[in-house]
């Protein structure tokens, strides 16, 4: 009876997980399928043939939309946000690890932007730039707006990492004559490297597809999410779905590269005998 019950529980959990995955990727699969519409196909089912015409159309001159420019801006902005998030989160984790006066209020202030509606953050930063006489741009105001979204996640991850990080590794390195910098560079950093890759992944992906915090801060040039949103009102071909499919593959590609980097780091740590 116990074995039958466990088998039933297993199948129920498996069915629940399958429904969960279907809920997550069902709408996405619809976009992916429609991106392969035939040359005379429309924006809805039924499909009128199958082709890669609309993927080819992405690389042709468009009457409406700036695919290449908006993608480049989103990629560059994502890389800027990723690098800044990794560095600031690492420094914040090291600082809070030591403890200092006012650390607790500063911690809550740092993560408070997570509970503020994104559109209000975007509006506030955009208005601040206008009051200061500065022009909002994707590489300045939007960059700051995205950091209010990515930094709290990065900081929380690094806090969790350092909360369970044993200082015995650093003490052993210093006992062997290493300086504080050498202990950090050759002991601490290799151990926390997978977590830093995760922080970077969070930073890039959260920035790459961010819409609300970019809406009032991007200025005259759209990032990719804004471009896609604008296209929904004036593009009447499946090229929009092809663009969505390509950008989704880019996101999965970034995740794959990050997982590969984590696997390589884990393999190197295993060779060194670091758990």
UniProtKB/TrEMBL annotation:
<feature type="transmembrane region" description="Helical">
    <location>
        <begin position="138"/>
        <end position="162"/>
    </location>
</feature>
<dbReference type="GO" id="GO:0005886">
    <property type="term" value="C:plasma membrane"/>
</dbReference>
<keyword id="KW-0812">Transmembrane</keyword>
<feature type="domain" description="ABC transmembrane type-1">
    <location>
        <begin position="71"/>
        <end position="258"/>
    </location>
</feature>
<keyword id="KW-0472">Membrane</keyword>
<dbReference type="InterPro" id="IPR051789">
    <property type="entry name" value="Bact_Polyamine_Transport"/>
</dbReference>
<keyword id="KW-0813">Transport</keyword>
<dbReference type="InterPro" id="IPR000515">
    <property type="entry name" value="MetI-like"/>
</dbReference>
<keyword id="KW-1133">Transmembrane helix</keyword>
<dbReference type="GO" id="GO:0055085">
    <property type="term" value="P:transmembrane transport"/>
</dbReference>
<comment type="similarity">
    <text>Belongs to the binding-protein-dependent transport system permease family. CysTW subfamily.</text>
</comment>
<feature type="transmembrane region" description="Helical">
    <location>
        <begin position="75"/>
        <end position="94"/>
    </location>
</feature>
<keyword id="KW-1003">Cell membrane</keyword>
<protein>
    <submittedName>
        <fullName>ABC transporter permease</fullName>
    </submittedName>
</protein>
<feature type="transmembrane region" description="Helical">
    <location>
        <begin position="183"/>
        <end position="206"/>
    </location>
</feature>
<dbReference type="InterPro" id="IPR035906">
    <property type="entry name" value="MetI-like_sf"/>
</dbReference>
<dbReference type="Pfam" id="PF00528">
    <property type="entry name" value="BPD_transp_1"/>
</dbReference>
<feature type="transmembrane region" description="Helical">
    <location>
        <begin position="12"/>
        <end position="36"/>
    </location>
</feature>
<feature type="transmembrane region" description="Helical">
    <location>
        <begin position="106"/>
        <end position="132"/>
    </location>
</feature>
<feature type="transmembrane region" description="Helical">
    <location>
        <begin position="239"/>
        <end position="266"/>
    </location>
</feature>
